Amino acid sequence: MTLAGTTDVVVIGAGHSGLAMSRHLSAAAIDHVVLERGEIANSWRRERWDSLRLLTPNWQTRLPGHAYTGPQPDGFMTMSDVIGFIDGYAKVVDAPVRTFTTVTSVSPLDGGYEVVTDRRVWRARAVVIANGASSTPAVPALGSALPASIRSLTPREYRNPRQLDDRTVLVVGASASGVQLADEIQRSGRRVMLAVGEHIRMPRTYRGRDIQWWLDATGVLDERFDAVDDIVRARRVPSPQLIGTPERSTLDLNALSARGVELVGRLAGIADGKAQFSGSLRNHCAMADLKLNRLLDRIDDWIERNGGSSEVDASERFAPTYTPENPRLLVDLEANRIGTVLWATGFRPDYRWLRAPVLDRKGNLRHEGGVVEAPGLYALGLNFMRRRKSSFIHGTEDDVRELGAHLVAYLRRVPLGELPPTATASAAGGTPHRHVDSINLKSHFH
After folding, report:
1. Of 293, 309, 343, which residue constitutes the final position of a domain?
2. What is the dihedral of CA 43, 16, 226, 429, to 10 degrees?
3. Could you tell me if 164 and 207 lie in one domain?
4. How far is CA 283 from the centre of its chain?
5. Chain-centroid distance, C-alpha 446
6. How far is it, in rounded angstroms, from Cα 166 to Cα 289?
7. Residue 245 neighbours by CB under 8 Å, 6+ apart
8. pLDDT tens, residue order, the chain (446 aa)
9. Are 107 and 7 members of one domain?
10. CA 73, CA 388: separation in Å to the nearest integer?
11. Are residues 18 and 62 part of one domain?
12. What own/partner pairs with CB < 8 Å and gap ≥ 24 does 384-387 have?
């Protein structure tokens, strides 16, 4: 291993968040290095299924100093598009990336940190953890009871239906990944059973606009971590049932039921070759319908307050989620020819290499809007880290501006009150970037 190198900041991860922080540090003349275990945008290259597209429209795909400029602003990027976008950004910012460099430990040392990799050791005054929130699939412990004859698969390993045999597929989880995979596999001619727990129902379009447009315009995406009653709960909210398609189609449980997907309740256990499902399916669906209607009410109220009713389509409400009269509670896996269980049960970050005492009893990073509970340690890209949009590509813009200002102040040992006005506002939470101006409504629609 090469002898230690020194720098001001080590950024871990060369995805969109790490590269955006690199740009900020370069602009502030802060010496740094970006360490990446694989290639730039590695998780997009190696850990996504073939047909996946972004949930956000192209007009919303932007990073500091870089934005989509193509001919389809209302389209949705494929994985190759995303990789190209991030690759292009790396070239634009000229980030000092060390690829194929795996971090094995980060430990406090002499007022800074020692970062050990499989290539060399780095010593830095600060570390930015930007390796994403989706390092490890969150497969529940009950998965260990799955019979050996049944294949266990996660969205990180799944690529396309050709990986599967012709038996039934049980998809566990009905958030964005679960509904997309259930739909793709059902369309391939295989029978699909979908285990449904808590979920967020959301239409692709509403009143003639993409739902992301409304979430942006009404300020939902800009809601801050320090302005919600229960941030721990807010950070656990599932991803919405959305899919990005050229047709801008809505994919919800009703659409899946119409295509032949069987809905069952939350997977509660596996014993003696039988899957046990809770009786909560109807309640979960009713709650999702209720929350959807509350969101649509909020959008309608915003339009009315801003005098824009004549500028958009009429208000509408969607049919309640259909649930079977008697959804099955116990399913014999072999008798029902279930050959694969696909765990669309979310992801969690991997901090096994982090030696600082900053993890709670569940292994989650203790932080305040990305400022970790250890001097000089920061995080980026986590769910609802500073705002609801933090986990989206475009959410990086505001988060990096604010955390970057905090980091620069820390390195320079300058009180925030003595920073230039723009940096002070950013570090204190300043005015976020908004795609639309909610004051002049009519200009939004022309």
Report:
1. 343
2. 170
3. yes
4. 26
5. 31
6. 34
7. 53, 76, 204
8. 565 789 999 999 999 999 999 999 999 999 999 999 999 999 899 889 999 999 999 999 999 999 999 999 999 999 999 999 999 999 999 999 999 999 999 999 988 999 999 999 999 999 999 998 777 889 999 999 999 999 999 999 999 999 999 999 999 999 999 999 999 999 999 999 999 999 999 999 999 999 999 999 999 999 999 999 999 999 999 999 999 999 999 999 999 999 999 999 999 999 999 999 999 999 999 999 999 999 999 999 999 999 988 899 999 999 999 999 999 999 999 999 999 999 999 888 889 999 999 999 888 899 999 999 999 999 999 999 999 999 999 999 999 999 999 999 999 984 434 433 333 333 333 434 444 433 344 444 43
9. yes
10. 22
11. yes
12. 384/225, 384/231, 384/234, 384/235, 384/237, 385/225, 386/224, 386/225, 387/221, 387/222, 387/223, 387/224, 387/225, 387/432
The structural domain count of the chain equals 2
Residue 335 CB contacts under 8 Å (≥ 6 apart), including other chains = none
Residue 127 CA to its chain's centroid (Å): 22
Same domain (yes/no): 316, 169: yes
Strand partners, 225: none
**13: enclosing H helix or E strand:** none
Cβ pair 381, 130 in contact under 8 A = yes
Residue pair 52/183 in contact (Cβ under 8 Å)? The answer is: no
Q: Which domain holds residue 69?
A: 2-135+349-445
Look up residue 408 and give its two tokens. Answer: 């620069």
Q: How many CA atoms lie within 13 A of 367 on its CB side?
A: 24
